[in-house]
Design a protein that fits this description.
5-stranded antiparallel beta sheet; Beta-lactamase; single chain; alpha+beta; 5-stranded mixed beta sheet; 19% strand; 17 helices
Length: 497
Amino acid sequence: MKKSSLFVALCCVVTVVMLTQCVCGEKKPSPAQTVSARGIISDRNGLVLVSNDTSYVYDSARAVIIRNYPNPVAAQLLGYVEYATPADLADDNSYVEGDIIGKAGIERYYDRWLRGKDGMPGKNLTLTIDYELQKLGEDLMEGKIGSIVAIEPSSGEVLCMVSSPTYNPQLLVGHREKANKRTLLQDSLKPLLNRSIMGQYSPGGVFKAAQGLVYLSVSIISSQTQYPCERGFTHDGLSIGCHGHPTPLTLVDALRTSCNGYFCRAHLDMMNHKKFRTVQDALEKWRDDITSLGLGNHLGIDLPHEKRGLIPNADFYDKAYRDQWSGLTILSNAIGQGEILCTPLQLANLSATIANRGHYYSPHVVKEIQEESINKKYKLQRLTQVSRDAYDVVIHGMRQSVLFGTCRTLSRLPIEVCGVSGMASYKEYNHSVFIGFAPVEDPKIAIAVYVENGGWGAKYAAPIGGYILEKYLNGELSETSKEKVKQIKEQHIGYEK
């Protein structure tokens, strides 16, 4: 069959005669049943990611249209389909026995559009995802656990969403689907988990960008406020270390060097400030401003099972410490540790918010629905509570970090990149983290990279982020960058199973 004829066949309504066994008195063949083709899913440039295969799988009672993945990427994002279970039938009266429905990812969230009805084919979806960017991200994260999320700041469109480890989505179709799914479910590295929206991590050093915004906006500090750092912060037996660098520092210096001591002192000053009657009042103000940046709440992405992360409130600590706590008790929050949890999506959205100087659009992965409009909530501009002037100072610090600080590996790029990198500690492990955007003016892309057990942010996360930025903004990687990407792809981190 010619390719053009095959494509028409993929999109049309298919009538299949149900085959059953008719041996030894078993059921006779059932009548013909009309099976509706599911909608086609393409990337933002029209490249088909999910289609329908004309090879049908038959069992003793049902006909199945196989999903096909001509360009197999973004498995967790796309999701998969299965027969509707009795529980599905009970939950949704639009399902009938034998229906094939979306069970995860886009296939589930947009099931009512993708699933055809009464013999009519489902609606096609155009995603916001860029296939080449997604493929590059998956190559860079090979042999690593973590995530890459990139967002277009001016729209909230998700340009890539990498969750690693991943799997070939073709595994979850056909006769081996059940066995393959069982294998994936039993894998201790959890390849079915979409870490971009379900992984809740300590943000570590990149959280300092958010802290700086709040301290400036609440007038705890100014751009000229200086704090000392002598290899960290020590008070009454409590010690939080830092690496060596010049001291004292301003906020811009502290963002450039990712200084722990600066942010510990600024955080204490906010918790103890005379403008607040109690430490509880101070924390509530801090939390209100932090959550206005899109942290600690669902962002409302068009995917199932998004986690909200955690930005603790005063009641949380009152219960944990029976009302006996102070700014020192929660000092780890100052550097993005302690009880603070964020998803990679939230960190990418934070970067987009900074790039926009104080607003963001709810991230989403579907750009167009055939003959319909996407949800209007994705067009709404969401404002933060942070003052506009605060963004200018933090952006200056992020630019200095790229030129002279912890992100200076990105200074090689011919575009003006802003970023902060950091390390998030969990038990005996250190995770590599980076957020950034480019260019400084009229930004086109914002990104977050999280690599579990990757060490310093400058070791894995920042370089990986740099190649994603370069690819998207330049269209191609330089020959030197291509070689570096190969090297990173081959660098596998050992994880306990």
